[in-house]
Amino acid sequence: MHAIEFKTKIRNGIIEIPEKFRNQLKENVRVILLTEPAMGANDIIEELLKSPLKINDFKPYKRDEIYDRV
Questions:
Q1: Domain limits of the chain?
Q2: What 3-state DSSP class applies to 11?
Q3: Phi, psi of 50 (to 5 degrees)
Q4: What pTM does this model have?
Q5: Are 13 and 6 in contact (CB under 8 A)?
Q6: Quick one: average pLDDT of 46-69?
C-alpha cells in the first residue's frame, strides 16, 4: 500500500486531489479522512509560540514605548 498526504478543503462534498498526485491514483484507493479541530484562542497563541510570524524590519517596542502609547 502506498500513502499520499495533502491538505485540502471539501467543497460541495467533493475532495479535490492535487494535480501532482492525480497520475499516481488510477483506481482502487482507500480514503481515510482526518479532520483538524477548530482552533480556540489558546490554540492560536500556542501555534504562534511554536512557529512565530517572521516580519521584515520588525522592531519590538521597549518597555517605556509600550506605556507611552496608552
A1: 10-68
A2: strand
A3: -70, -45
A4: 0.44
A5: no
A6: 86
